[in-house]
């Protein structure tokens, strides 16, 4: 089996405790081996439970925590979504008094929105004595910060591949890499993690010579595809797939995350009626060449389909756009004509091939990958870490085209860790961009995990889990309809800001009559009211906002031309404007 990583050896940048070195050098070898074996078992369990939220909410970093005393597991927890209760706090609450002197196992170093130290403080207050970390956080502004705090407070922190270097930990380290592969690829390559999926017959055909392709694989295999979609931010197909198959590309899982559907078409030679143009259940984007069929672009826009024009439309340009949009994972379900350039451009990282025990033949029957320009078998791409799984009568073969990047070797020294505070490191810039909550200024996002208390129309103070929860609910507040009241309550109890946004946007598309009649004129005031409460309730956020004085704040959304700045600065950037307005008001009040 090919390993997806290389063994690491570091000086540790001054962060490795001397006590740890002494402990690893002393003691009975058999006792040490038994202890390390337990460490490996628990860290693999942390990685295993970290993936439990996959498919339930928009893809995000996967965090799991296991608290154990030797073989005894005292508590477990995993992060459902950013903005929900962290894995460490869940595990601590489950373990109770058994936390005293126990070891906490984390598949990934904690990394939260600005100044939210709940994961670290939960471990410290519970009396945890040792922490084993699978991976340092891959994002530079978060890497090493939580580890530094834990060690400063006297906890022993051991990191796989640094403090714990042994063949015993290879599989444990690999599990930590795999469970957060999307985040690692995004951090290393500045591209989303891309999976190419296809189903083919035993003789390598994805359809008959006529183009008929329903169904190549079994129902069980198709259910696995729905799971893959639910783990993705977007699903991509080409124009041929739309014309030939008229797919829906939904995950069809109850209460599962629904990815954005993206169609790549240079000429925009697409049918006027297609399942993908129905956006009541899932959002659709059409990526095309600039200037293609302007009238048809207007037709798509009238249906609620977003059209994005590119000067040069190719897989890499599209993936760079998806990166700017904040996507972590993308699933390619395209035909061979699009799969080939996607592979050639180096943006496909993993392959899922479903092989059905069927033979259909046909000289002109399409294959899963088109022409790659290779003339010798030695030029073929070899998959890494290949897995084989039988699903019903089909065989699923999967593997990586590019190894998972291991970013942990970059170990910052103690003084550099302290300098990673975004308020200090990025204050000298004239323009500060923010978008996703994992960004250095992610706390400015309305999706950040900061509950807000806002009085309702009766003067009663209500707590909303995030600004986004409040904003989405206000679309239907004050509408005299039982359905609207029900949707407000549904949004309020949504498990994450992403789910609140999904509910609010879906209801707005399906039931436009339930939206407040003056919503377009009210939404700016609604957002500003929530922002004022957020930055007045959290002093550290207030300080962060004031630290940007003199800088222009821009929400770096490439697609939201109202709240964001757009791809080329054509957006109105109202969220950035409101934050700068709030910053001015706070500064004026202080001066007065």
From TrEMBL:
<dbReference type="GO" id="GO:0008835">
    <property type="term" value="F:diaminohydroxyphosphoribosylaminopyrimidine deaminase activity"/>
</dbReference>
<dbReference type="InterPro" id="IPR024072">
    <property type="entry name" value="DHFR-like_dom_sf"/>
</dbReference>
<protein>
    <recommendedName>
        <fullName>5-amino-6-(5-phosphoribosylamino)uracil reductase</fullName>
        <ecNumber>1.1.1.193</ecNumber>
    </recommendedName>
</protein>
<keyword id="KW-0326">Glycosidase</keyword>
<dbReference type="InterPro" id="IPR050765">
    <property type="entry name" value="Riboflavin_Biosynth_HTPR"/>
</dbReference>
<dbReference type="Pfam" id="PF08719">
    <property type="entry name" value="NADAR"/>
</dbReference>
<dbReference type="InterPro" id="IPR037238">
    <property type="entry name" value="YbiA-like_sf"/>
</dbReference>
<dbReference type="InterPro" id="IPR012816">
    <property type="entry name" value="NADAR"/>
</dbReference>
<keyword id="KW-0511">Multifunctional enzyme</keyword>
<dbReference type="GO" id="GO:0009231">
    <property type="term" value="P:riboflavin biosynthetic process"/>
</dbReference>
<comment type="pathway">
    <text>Cofactor biosynthesis; riboflavin biosynthesis; 5-amino-6-(D-ribitylamino)uracil from GTP: step 3/4.</text>
</comment>
<dbReference type="InterPro" id="IPR011549">
    <property type="entry name" value="RibD_C"/>
</dbReference>
<dbReference type="GO" id="GO:1901135">
    <property type="term" value="P:carbohydrate derivative metabolic process"/>
</dbReference>
<dbReference type="InterPro" id="IPR002125">
    <property type="entry name" value="CMP_dCMP_dom"/>
</dbReference>
<dbReference type="InterPro" id="IPR004794">
    <property type="entry name" value="Eubact_RibD"/>
</dbReference>
<keyword id="KW-0521">NADP</keyword>
<dbReference type="GO" id="GO:0016799">
    <property type="term" value="F:hydrolase activity, hydrolyzing N-glycosyl compounds"/>
</dbReference>
<keyword id="KW-0378">Hydrolase</keyword>
<feature type="domain" description="CMP/dCMP-type deaminase">
    <location>
        <begin position="37"/>
        <end position="158"/>
    </location>
</feature>
<dbReference type="GO" id="GO:0050661">
    <property type="term" value="F:NADP binding"/>
</dbReference>
<dbReference type="InterPro" id="IPR016193">
    <property type="entry name" value="Cytidine_deaminase-like"/>
</dbReference>
<keyword id="KW-0560">Oxidoreductase</keyword>
<dbReference type="InterPro" id="IPR002734">
    <property type="entry name" value="RibDG_C"/>
</dbReference>
<dbReference type="Pfam" id="PF01872">
    <property type="entry name" value="RibD_C"/>
</dbReference>
<dbReference type="GO" id="GO:0008703">
    <property type="term" value="F:5-amino-6-(5-phosphoribosylamino)uracil reductase activity"/>
</dbReference>
């Amino acid at each position: 089996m090919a390993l997806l990583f290389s063994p690491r050896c570091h000086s540790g940048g001054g962060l490795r405790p001397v006590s740890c070195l002494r402990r690893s050098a002393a003691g009975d070898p058999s006792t040490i081996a038994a202890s390390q074996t337990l460490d490996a078992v628990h860290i693999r369990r942390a990685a295993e439970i970290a993936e439990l939220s996959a498919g339930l909410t928009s893809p995000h970093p996967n965090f799991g925590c296991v608290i154990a005393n030797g073989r005894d597991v005292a508590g477990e927890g995993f992060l459902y979504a950013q903005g929900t209760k962290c894995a460490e706090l869940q595990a601590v609450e489950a373990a109770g008094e058994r936390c005293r002197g126990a070891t906490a196992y984390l598949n990934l170093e904690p990394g939260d929105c600005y100044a939210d130290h709940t994961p670290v403080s939960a471990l410290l207050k519970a009396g945890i004595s040792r922490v084993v970390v699978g991976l340092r956080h891959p994002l530079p502004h978060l890497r090493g910060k939580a580890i530094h705090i834990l060690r400063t407070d006297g906890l022993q922190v051991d990191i796989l591949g640094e403090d714990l270097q042994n063949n015993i930990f290879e599989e444990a380290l690999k599990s930590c890499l795999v469970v957060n592969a999307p985040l690692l690829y995004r951090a290393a390559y500045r591209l989303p993690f891309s999976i190419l999926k296809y189903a083919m017959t035993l003789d390598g055909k994805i359809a008959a010579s006529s183009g008929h392709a329903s169904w190549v694989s079994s129902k069980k295999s198709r259910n696995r595809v729905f799971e893959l979609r639910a783990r993705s931010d977007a699903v991509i197909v080409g124009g041929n797939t739309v014309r030939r198959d008229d797919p829906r590309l939904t995950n069809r899982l109850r209460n599962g995350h629904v990815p954005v559907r993206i169609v790549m078409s240079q000429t925009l030679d697409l049918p006027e009626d297609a399942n993908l143009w129905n956006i009541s259940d899932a959002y659709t984007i059409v990526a095309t060449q600039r200037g293609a069929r302007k009238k048809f672009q207007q037709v798509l826009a009238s249906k609620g389909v977003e059209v994005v024009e590119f000067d040069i439309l190719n897989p890499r340009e599209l993936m760079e756009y998806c990166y700017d949009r904040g996507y972590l994972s993308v699933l390619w379900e395209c035909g061979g004509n699009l799969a080939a350039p996607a592979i050639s451009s180096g943006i496909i990282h993993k392959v899922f091939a479903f092989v059905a025990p069927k033979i259909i033949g046909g000289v002109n029957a399409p294959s899963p990958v088109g022409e790659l320009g290779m003339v010798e078998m030695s030029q073929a791409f070899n998959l890494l870490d290949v897995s084989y799984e039988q699903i019903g009568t089909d065989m699923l073969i999967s593997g990586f085209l590019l190894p998972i990047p291991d970013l942990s070797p970059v170990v910052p020294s103690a003084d550099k860790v302290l300098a990673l505070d975004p308020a200090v490191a990025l204050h000298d810039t004239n323009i500060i961009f923010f978008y996703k909550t994992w960004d250095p200024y992610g706390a400015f996002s309305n999706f950040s995990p900061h509950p807000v208390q806002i009085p309702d129309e009766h003067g009663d103070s209500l707590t909303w889990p995030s600004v986004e929860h409040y904003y989405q609910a206000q679309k239907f507040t004050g509408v005299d309809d039982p359905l609207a009241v029900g949707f407000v309550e549904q949004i309020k109890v949504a498990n994450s800001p992403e789910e609140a946004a999904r509910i609010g946007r879906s209801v707005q598309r399906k039931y436009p009559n339930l939206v407040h009649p003056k919503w377009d004129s009210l939404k700016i005031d609604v957002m500003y009211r929530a922002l004022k409460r957020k930055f007045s309730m959290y002093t550290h956020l207030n300080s962060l906002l004031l630290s940007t004085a003199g800088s222009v704040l821009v929400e770096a959304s490439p697609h939201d031309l109202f709240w964001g700045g757009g791809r080329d600065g054509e957006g109105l950037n109202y969220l950035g404007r409101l934050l700068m307005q709030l910053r001015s008001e706070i500064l004026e009040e202080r001066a007065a």
